[in-house]
Design brief:
The structure holds two protein chains of two kinds. Chain A is mainly alpha-helical. Helices cover 38% and strands 7% of the residues of chain A. The chains are: A mainly alpha, B mainly beta.
């Protein structure tokens, strides 16, 4: 029955087709469409105004110290013997948790610690390449060049002391470059470049910056950075010479106008910005209306340390307790630091013992991960600091972060002097005298102890321990492995299809 | 696959804003930065297609179309992940390579009417094989997107399907210390020294005696191999019924409903069947605050599930009122109907919605909002 129907019922059509095509209008390159409303990189940098906007883009990356969840201060505090990661749980921030217990690897290492600094460097490279062609006053041009070189040097220094083995790129990368095959440079060569950039920059920088220019790089800033770089590069004589110019006579006002402030605790008063002790300071404001969508990105102007270190579910129960904003409980201080600072006048400005406030029924909070009850008072957010402007409450705190201050350069000079001699003694004494402490005999150990107390929680301790070679002994119980954890693992993305080699001990 | 949706002016590098900074007077100064690398060589994706099709009409009531095709795409346009040291914020777009799609599409229809009863069925069925044939600069693979702190979870790799999942493979769970101690390499050293009972036993796929990124293997394909759909229309006297169903098979989905960074974030109930002692589970590892083996933090086959599904997309039942009733109220036709959309889904996938998840280029289900199941009651009245 089927066969009978088949002959007349089957109509068979065969179609053979071949077609070629491209998505879009024709085979031409996409470049043939012109965009007339925007500046591409080749027709920008025409005048001072444009060059300044590009320079601001280089400064933008300074925010990395204290802005965004992945900021330098909380991350490296977490790896030191003074603080734990803290946070909501053992998985609250894979990077900062891995830093705290030394399980960090190339996947959990936040890529931004690498990428953000390289973005700052790329912006500086572009400005340095283009600015000679701009029509502008030569003095201004030379100042911009010096600021860009100082910032490039600073960003390379941070990359170097965090990652150790990094590519050294000094010109804008072009699409035609073989940019997948840029090798890591010898750290000595990176140090040499950083030092050269700073030495070139210093003569053309202003002695001081006042008013609306506060926060811009000055001679004093660049010298302090250079001294610090020399110290890490183990060129102690050169370091001491730079610090000497920055510091002047201990306790007196230096040639750049630097002087220790009399009230230690006032350094962390939110509206006490750019004091005489401030050498390199990151400006934060609540006017950026920061929100979650661009948190940590270029238009985020808030300080993120504040909300991160606040206690969880805090409530004030007595007038004796501060009116804090509840935060996320990162960077809780260790018992070790709390005990170490007993009897020191800097204890209370540094650590707020909320465990005690709770025991005395003056305040309440929820203990979170690795809670000790000791919170980082230098940056605790208060209700009075809440921004009145739009944006997220958590992300618009406006406390500045001081990257380098005079007490730090006093102690670095004393260290560069080998911890001996009358000048080292005078520097150490000045730091102690400011908080009402009497003199102790200067020595490397005395300087180390002083740095730990004076600068606690400001993000320096981990780098200090590594520089002194003390990290394996002090941090071994936290999981620090000598010969490995002195530098961080290179983020995974950098290893893919590139010539980058992972740092020893990490995979 | 491949696309023309890459945005405008991707060949150039522009100075873009929002790189601001503030100085001492507390005024935000707008700063600029280069957004990406310029790419003057960028060109459109090109395709060349070969089709072989046959239309058959059988027994007057059947229709069959078979279409075999082979489509070559040259110069796939995609944003590329470039090294961070290049220093730009936006990934540049580039022509990254070539691929080939080969497949068959079959559609079969049947239609017949009797006095009171009519039926029509249309079905289609597709098979697709996708293969990346070349990557620029002789690269072996390009990383696809990542998932939370895991790093990249898929790759575009020569010889494999576009966006194949890559990760570690586990060979079940260590049930006891003896199994951990017995898992040794050629030198007699433990392959996973820090493992505890209840942890995944990662396979040392390259046999070098350690577990590292080199042990990541292709874990499956995010592009569905099979897609199908069927529409059935039935009418009997004044009643009519329409059913439209569709589905796919042969793809994997990354079930990424949970936030890995929040230890106490809720789990799905499948976690109740986790390993709690010898012999309790060979698929769900131990739950612990210290996941040093990376049971949950490593990309592995644990996160992948079959994306197969069959979904009743549309179901409609209608009833037309008899003509004498219709006319009596002055209308030409009155039809009452009930429609259900996304009425039912047959799937073993445990995420919210296998169809939405498969809409992701790389099959990574980042807890996309599922499609709603809706019911509509309506009336068509014609005057």
């Amino acid at each position: 029955m089927k066969n009978k129907y088949l002959n007349k019922a089957v109509i068979l059509t065969l179609v053979l087709g071949v077609s070629f095509g491209s998505v879009g209008c024709n085979d031409d390159n996409l470049e043939d469409v012109k965009n007339s409303g925007a500046f591409d990189t080749s027709n920008y940098f025409k005048n001072e105004e444009q060059c300044f906007s590009a320079l601001v883009g280089v400064y933008d990356v300074l925010r990395k110290y204290s802005g965004g969840f992945e900021n330098m201060v909380t991350f490296f505090n977490a790896g030191s013997d003074d603080f734990y990661s803290g946070g909501g749980s053992s998985t609250d921030g894979a990077g900062i948790q891995g830093m705290s217990n030394y399980t960090i690897n190339s996947n959990t290492m936040p890529g931004s610690y690498w990428n953000d600094y390289y973005q700052g460097i790329a912006r500086a490279n572009l400005l340095l390449e283009k600015i000679p062609g701009a029509s502008m006053d030569d003095n201004v041009r030379n100042r911009f060049i010096s600021e860009a070189k100082t910032l490039r040097a600073l960003y390379y220094f941070e990359l170097l002391r965090v990652f150790g083995n990094i590519p050294l790129i000094l010109e804008p990368v072009k699409a035609s470059d073989d940019y997948y095959n840029i090798p890591q440079a010898n750290p000595a060569d990176v140090y040499a470049q950083i030092e050269a950039d700073l030495n070139e920059a210093i003569p053309n920088l202003p002695i001081m910056a006042t008013g609306a220019e506060r926060g811009r790089i000055t001679q004093g800033t660049a010298r302090a950075i250079l001294g610090k770089v020399y110290l890490y590069d183990k060129k102690n004589d050169l370091a001491a010479a730079q610090f000497n110019q920055v510091n002047g006579t201990p306790g007196q006002t230096s040639q750049y106008g630097y002087k220790l402030v009399s009230d230690y605790a006032s350094l962390w008063e939110v509206d006490n910005k750019f004091t005489s002790e401030s050498i390199l300071e990151v400006m934060h404001t609540n006017k950026g209306n920061s929100d979650w969508g661009f948190w940590g990105a270029g238009q985020d102007e808030g300080n993120s340390i504040n909300i991160m270190v606040g206690p969880r579910s805090y409530s004030k129960k007595s007038d004796d307790a501060p009116d804090l904003v509840s935060g996320w409980a990162f960077n809780v201080a260790t018992d070790d630091l709390f005990n170490f600072m007993q009897g020191d006048p800097r204890l209370n400005p540094t650590i707020l013992n909320i465990k005690q406030l709770k025991a005395d029924n003056k305040a309440d909070y929820s203990p979170a991960y690795l809670d000790t009850g000791y919170f980082l008072n230098k940056y605790l957010p208060t209700k009075a600091d809440i921004s009145p402007y739009p944006g997220s409450m958590e992300l618009n705190f406006r406390q500045n972060y001081i990257v380098i201050r005079l007490a730090d350069t006093y102690l670095m000079e004393a260290e560069a002097l080998g911890g001996t001699g009358s000048r080292a003694q005078a520097l150490l004494d000045a730091v102690r005298a400011r908080v009402g402490l009497s003199s102790v005999p200067v020595s490397m150990q005395a300087i180390k102890n002083e740095r730990r107390r004076e600068l606690a929680g400001e993000g320096h301790r981990w780098f200090d321990l590594v520089r002194w070679g003390d990290a394996p002994a002090v941090l071994g119980s936290r999981g620090f492995v000598a010969g490995k954890n002195e530098i961080m693992p290179i983020p995974f993305n950098e290893l893919t299809n590139t010539a980058i080699k992972q740092n020893p001990g990490y995979n | 696959m491949g696309n023309d949706q890459i945005g405008n002016f991707k060949f150039a590098s522009y100075m873009v804003g929002n790189s601001n900074y503030t100085y001492g007077d507390n005024v935000i100064i707008p700063g600029v930065r280069p957004n990406t690398l310029e790419n003057p060589d960028l060109h459109w994706e090109e395709t060349a297609q070969l089709n072989f099709a046959a239309d058959l009409k059988l027994f007057t009531n059947f229709n069959l179309t078979v279409d075999w095709y082979k489509k070559k795409t040259t110069g796939i346009l995609r944003p590329v992940l470039i090294p961070g040291y290049v220093g730009v914020t936006d990934a540049p777009v580039a022509n990254i390579g070539d691929m080939e799609n080969r497949g068959v599409e079959v559609s079969l229809g049947y239609k017949k009417n009797w006095e009171d009863f009519g039926i029509s069925v249309n079905s289609n069925f597709g098979y697709l094989k996708n293969e990346v044939t070349k990557l620029e600069d002789g690269r072996e693979y390009i990383n696809g997107p990542g998932f939370q702190s895991m790093g990249p979870v898929s790759r575009i790799q020569v010889g494999e399907s576009y966006g194949s999942f890559y990760g570690f493979l586990n060979d079940g769970i260590f049930q006891n210390q003896a199994e951990i101690d017995a898992y040794k390499n050629a030198n007699g050293a433990l392959i996973i020294p820090g493992a505890r009972p209840g942890d995944f036993k990662w396979i040392d796929t390259n046999g070098d005696g350690v577990i590292d990124d080199k042990d990541k293997v292709n874990l499956g394909n995010s592009v569905p191999k099979w897609t199908y759909g069927v529409t059935v229309n039935l009418n009997y006297k004044n009643f009519d019924l329409m059913v439209f169903a569709q589905g796919q098979a042969g793809n994997k989905l990354f079930q990424g409903l949970r936030r890995l960074d929040m230890l106490y974030a809720n789990y799905q109930t499948a976690i109740l069947d986790r390993w709690t002692g010898e012999g309790t589970s060979n698929t769900v590892p131990i739950l612990s605050t210290n996941d040093s083996n990376g049971n949950f933090s490593k990309m592995s086959n644990y996160y992948l599930q079959k994306g197969d599904y069959l979904r009743i997309k549309l179901l409609q039942v209608g009833y037309s009122l008899p003509e004498n009733v219709t006319k009596s109220i002055g209308a030409n036709k009155i039809r009452l109907y009930v429609t259900g959309e996304n009425v039912f889904t047959f799937t073993k996938y445990t995420g919210y919605d296998p169809e939405i998840a498969a809409g992701d280029d790389f099959g990574i289900d980042r807890a996309y909002y599922p499609q709603a199941r809706t019911f509509l009651f309506g009336a068509n009245i014609q005057f």
